[in-house]
Amino acid sequence: xxxxxxxxxxxxxxxxxxxxxxxxxxxxxxxxxxxxxxxxxxxxxxxxxxxxxxxxxxxxxxxxxxxxxxxxxxxxxxxxxxxxxxxxxxxxxxxxxxxxxxxxxxxxxxxxxxxxxxxxxxxxxxxxxxxxxxxxxxxxxxxxxxxxxxxxxxxxxxxxxxxxxxxxxxxxxxxxxxxxxxxxxxxxxxxxxxxxxxxxxxxxxxxxxxxxxxxxxxxxxxxxxxxxxxxxxxxxxxxxxxxxxxxxxxxxxxxxxxxxxxxxxxxxxxxxxxxxxxxxxxxxxxxxxxxxxxxxxxxxxxxxxxxxxxxxxxxxxxxxxxxxxxxxxxxxxxxxxxxxxxxxxxxxxxxxxxxxxxxxxxxxxxxxxxxxxxxxxxxxxxxxxxxxxxxxxxxxxxxxxxxxxxxxxxxxxxxxxxxxxxxxxxxxxxxxxxxxxxxxxxxxxxxxxxxxxxxxxxxxxxxxxxxxxxxxxxxxxxxxxxxxxxxxxxxxxxxxxxxxxxxxxxxxxxxxxxxxxxxxxxxxxxxxxxxxxxxxxxxxxxxxxxxxxxxxxxxxxxxxxxxxxxxxxxxxxxxxxxxxxxxxxxxxxxxxxxxxxxxxxxxxxxxxxxxxxxxxxxxxxxxxxxxxxxxxxxxxxxxxxxxxxxxxxxxxxxxxxxxxxxxxxxxxxxxxxxxxxxxxxxxxxxxxxxxxxxxxxxxxxxxxxxxxxxxxxxxxxxxxxxxxxxxxxxxxxxxxxxxxxxxxxxxxxxxxxxxxxxxxxxxxxxxxxxxxxxxxxxxxxxxxxxxxxxxxxxxxxxxxxxxxxxxxxxxxxxxxxxxxxxxxxxxxxxxxxxxxxxxxxxxxxxxxxxxxxxxxxxxxxxxxxxxxxxxxxxxxxxxxxxxxxxxxxxxxxxxxxxxxxxxxxxxxxxxxxxxxxxxxxxxxxxxxxxxxxxxx
Length: 936
Hints:
Layout: H1 2-13, E1 18-19, E2 35-40, E3 43-48, H2 52-69, E4 80-85, E5 92-96, E6 101-105, H3 112-115, H4 120-137, H5 142-150, H6 152-162, H7 165-179, H8 188-201, H9 206-211, H10 221-235, H11 238-250, H12 257-266, H13 270-284, E7 304-312, E8 315-322, E9 325-333, E10 336-342, E11 353-355, E12 358-365, E13 375-382, E14 388-391, E15 397-402, E16 408-415, E17 419-426, E18 431-437, E19 443-451, E20 454-460, E21 465-471, E22 477-483, E23 491-493, E24 496-503, E25 506-513, E26 519-521, E27 529-535, E28 538-545, E29 548-555, E30 597-598, E31 609-615, E32 620-628, E33 634-642, E34 648-657, E35 663-679, E36 682-702, E37 708-724, E38 739-754, E39 766-776, E40 785-796, E41 803-813, E42 840-853, E43 857-859, E44 863-881, E45 886-903, E46 909-919, E47 924-935
Parallel strand pairs: 1-31, 3-4, 4-6
Antiparallel strand pairs: 2-3, 2-30, 5-6, 7-8, 8-9, 9-10, 11-12, 12-13, 13-14, 15-16, 16-17, 17-18, 19-20, 20-21, 21-22, 23-24, 24-25, 25-26, 27-28, 28-29, 31-32, 32-33, 33-34, 34-35, 35-36, 36-37, 37-38, 38-39, 39-40, 40-41, 41-42, 42-44, 43-44, 44-45, 45-46, 46-47
């Protein structure tokens, strides 16, 4: 076990060095954007010039709260850059080791289960800075020595194997909740699904709740992490919980170092703490009355949501999604459900809009070239014909709603230079008739139509949510205070506004009187009710169950019969005995520290980091230096590498400049090569010196605009190899001897792949192709030419999550000429056969794959089996050499059994298995290990 764990540690310590022959395509900001940089203590805030006023407020908040963010861990981290990206519609943030930086994606979230009652920039900045504190806190003692030697990659590997992801994310959610009036710990829609799993499935075991499952829907490690962290903070002092994490990082070379550190600090094992946590939260689950007459069956093994239900022609429209389903518009009538349309990359605003036979929703629209330029579009479906059209492409739309008549639209936009903007359009006249811009301190969520001339939305001011109603004809504005909870999307009916809101620890639907603000509780059953939609006094809505968000209905014609209630302040869930250490949000001082604002580009080269590299084409080992700049515009790698089979060793360097539409790649290698070949019963050693220079261009493009991911990569390179000191008078055709070899290499890759669900391991529909041409230059010392291509087609199998994969591949290459050289093979071959030299080669493969078992079983803390899957295949190929009239037919068939598993409680999945191959010509059966290493 000790040697095995050392190997595992080694793999994780070097995980960031898994590279292709070319530098990876970096996620980049679009070149030409103007940046400013502002230093405040140990943080440099990097932000777009046009957005500075709105962003500087969050800088002040974060700077004022730093001492509280250090709480428990008690560590002041080293300097870091916070880069604020406002050219995207994604609401998120992250921290990376290489380069050491954090990125904040500035658009406020429209997902009410994420946004909370706090300014988005404050909440996400606090969350990410807590990560900075966590990740840098392990940079001490022996780890500091490793950092000096191997750079940030060593720290990244140490964190991965020593500190569970649930703690880093859950602890950050806890901090964001305690230091702001919002935070996900105050949102029932965030934590209630986990509590329902606990109620229905029991506490099971730690591995399943943390590592996930393909059998049941397990909420992600953010939810589990918050509940675990909140429980630990409630039962132990802050230093105990924080120091357990730090000590785990220090002692990473011990298996299960976090569990050992936690037991040393608390006197209880990790499993014991988990069991007590589950028992505690189980006692907090309210005994609610079950919802009557749910529309869909509740099957916990087929977790499925039917979101945002709408009445349509005596039936129900909804968006179906779940553990085994991608987002689809479905229509249900007379207990039969049919698919209407598969949606694209649905933007999470919790809203769709129906008008007559038109259904509209918002989707993400990725940038063509620059990954940081994700925008949105509005998709409108004609329900009767099934056709769709896209409007408002790349206009920053976050919400789109038809008016009751369908003649007008209400849209909420996010513009990087203006913030949020509400617009009303006359769809018949195709003109804008109303516009409202948010102020710096305002944040809007979930707009809705009150009637044809009034609109409403929820405004968050950092302390509470306010219902705002505006007359678009005269601009009259009315505000009704709600409270510090987060309201869900609303629907207006008979002078009331219906929406979900936390009552205790459960979201229920309430109705607010537009005239006087009186509130009536409409639902009082289930474990979460959302997305009300009312027609003729009949309300349809989502009811949260352990099997997904089902659909329920209720008569609300006599609204006066529902009880009047007062809303209580919303507190963080699950906490007990927490003192005021974190409650410092009222002491925020928005004052500058007289630090200079720099008006130059912040993309200076990051400090060098170096370590061991693994090239995943042939597992060569390298030791070298690597560097990237903060804006991910260029990457530099250099060092010394040794082939695992001792075929070559020598110096190498690579430089990739990616701040232009076309990526520029340069590579230099100076190698000593040595290999043995069998000749007439004996082995002959060949050795030589080889100097390789290459320069290339790549153009990656993303054409995704709907349910299929469409990606294109075109590349071309010039390559030169100079060989000296070749020690033999003969050579093999796949070797060079003394001389110069120059060739061009042109490649093309395209994929058209349907998005997948959690249970899919192959796409249900799609195809991918790879093709290329390599040819030597005229008047060179060697002559070579090769054209190759291969592709896969995916079609559905006989049952759900079953899949056919049809593969074809082939090549043609030059086999005559003086000083002939043969390029290495780049296409799949018939399984069970070695690579044989042909002038023309083609193969066909048919493979059927299916899931076999979702066991969710563990062997102690060492291995957790999540899924077994298998495949059967048939391969057939033909190789031809016209020069000697040699033809070889190849045929084989077999099967593969794989398992998806986690080892040593590490969240990264591994896929291992065995391939059994049979060749009819030799009647030989062979067995091969299938190892997909870690799935990142």
